[in-house]
Amino acid sequence: MASNKHLIITIDVEAGPHLQSADHVDRLIWGKFGDQRLGIGRMMEIAERCGRKLTFFLDYCETLRYPGAFEEISRYISEHGHDIQLHAHTQFLTDTFWKQRGLGPIRVGLDQYSKQHAVVLMDFLTNCAVSMGGKPAVAFRGGAFRYNRSILDAMAQFRIPLSFNYNIKTPWQSNNELNRGIFRWSNGVVEVPMSYTNIRNKMREFEFSSTSSTDFGDRGLVRDYMEQFYAEFGGHGVLVMLLHSWSFLYREKKDEKAFHYEFKGQQLAESFEHFLGNLGDDVRVITASELDGLIKDGVLKINDCRSTEEVDSMNPRIVP
Description:
With 320 residues, this protein is α/β, with parallel strands linked by helices.
């Protein structure tokens, strides 16, 4: 009998220059430090040994800063049979980018995007997915989990059915304190919230990194987390695990305002492999594309529906 406990392992692929001093793509995406490789290639190797598929959210806005890099990244992920979806840190979109598309420059976050800017962004991202990744994307996650109603409507227009944006702990969504399972927006887009559960008197995100509140080296904590999550959200709970391309590296403080991700050993990669290799037989690891298929085929039914008008009310800078 097929499992109805689903886990999606999502990796945000990004090379923000504030996170390293140099060689940003090599260090923050490929994890190259000398002869060490602790980036997305290592993640795929581990997943493949464990018979799992990963979902990579690629920040295609960075193609403007790192020409050619994301073509290679997309090709590598596709050749290894993993999932490519859309991510966006829009500070990488230049004034020239917007002027070429007939719009004035925009320097606000996704939670402040107008309808016109959102449409241009989704047009750009979806074209990147097809031209570089080889097939249409089905999911989008904004940088820092920023989004608004304009973004959701643009997603619907460009047939991106899954939003991975709702997050109860992000500072950009101050009025979404209700922890939810997956639900559908009134425009048809399905929201797949970032997973949280209250374990040992702390609301913990299911996020893997050197600073995670969920210690994946603590087998009992992870077991309790997963059991409580599936009990809380029912038989069709979709557990979202969050990593970044630099999640096998360690955060090191550089000064009062900055930190970098650095190589400090193999412990995190080994912990990730132990987690994947010891998942229960009742937990099925799926990709975002597979989730889309389960929803469309009616295998996973969604009864909760919310109006898109609620999205902007979550943003503290927008007055309804």
